[in-house]
Amino acid sequence: MSIKENIEKINSVKNAAARRAGRDGSEILLCAVTKTHPASDINEAIDAGITDIGENKVQEILDKYDEVKPVRWHMIGHLQTNKVKYIIDKVSLIHSVDSYKLAEEINKRAAQHGIVMDILIQVNSAMEESKFGITTDETDSLIEEILKNCPNIRIRGLMCIAPFAENPGDAAKYFRAVKEIYDRYADAPREGLDFKYLSMGMSNDFETAIAEGSNLIRIGTAIFGARNYNKIV
Ligand SMILES: *Cc1c(COP(=O)(O)O)cnc(C)c1O
Questions:
Q1: Residue 123's domain spans which residues?
Q2: 68-125: per-residue pLDDT in tens?
Q3: pTM for the full predicted model
Q4: Is the CB of residue 190 less than 8 Å from the CB of residue 150?
Q5: CA 143 / ligand 1 centre spacing (Å)
Q6: Residue 233 lies in a domain
Q7: Which of 218, 219, 224, 229 to mutate to test the pocket of ligand 1 (most atoms within 8 A of CB)?
Q8: Could you please report the per-residue DSSP string of 116-163?
Q9: What is the CATH number of the domain that holds 70?
């Protein structure tokens, strides 16, 4: 199947999952995850209607940035503080903020550019050792610390990567734990905080994520096929 056909299929599955949850599919943003894939494939996806793309490495954003058609770039992977400066003026949303140190650096670089950077807090609700993100218990204090000290950051929501499961339904409880936190803040916007995105769900588990309230799904494999990490992009 072509990239365009894959996107059409994802959109129809997304819309059906939304309907089952009593929601409208248009409320759920499809972010195409383009890591390891060349700019030509990304442009094909953009021609097929993709408006938002996600990368998990700073270097890949820099390598492809000039070749990719106008689109919103999302930084979805672990971000080292010393690399914030390279992407601060290129991405519209950073999904992976999981420490005050990183937020502080984003705030500093955003201030230098005279912008306010939109971020999500990455919550590792399954507390997997191998994953980045803070625990559900740490979320409130990180949010408060950022609100107090980072005027050039606007917190737009939360992101979660569920553990890989043979049965995607197993991810539901991890998504639900993050949705509970999300709802508390979504109902109470204030200066520096305006929740709009609950970023949950990948190729394997996005229907479950939508059932649990996700409104931003990050899909790579189901659009572009399997990744070959040895291939030079
Ligand atoms: C790679 C990646 C995805 C997409 O994963 P697929 O299983 O290929 O859909 C989503 N989110 C993050 C953070 C990723 O690194």
A1: 3-224
A2: 999 999 999 999 999 999 999 999 999 999 999 999 999 999 999 999 999 999 999 8
A3: 0.96
A4: no
A5: 24
A6: no
A7: 218
A8: -EEEEEEB-TT--TTS-SB-HHHHHHHHHHHHHH-TTEEEEEEEE-PP
A9: 3.20.20.10
Tokens at 33, concatenated:
């995850």
Domains identified in the chain, total number: 1
* Amino acid in position 184: R
Q: Of 16, 33, 38, which is closest to residue 25 (Cα–Cα)?
A: 16
Q: If you take atom 10 of ligand 1, which residue's CA is the nearest one? A: 218
Q: Find out whether the beta carbon of 219 lies less than 6 Å from any atom of ligand 1.
A: yes
The amino acid that residue 112 corresponds to is Q
Q: Is residue 230 part of a domain?
A: no
Please compute, for residue 75, the number of CA atoms within 13 A of its CA located in the half-sphere on the CB side: 31
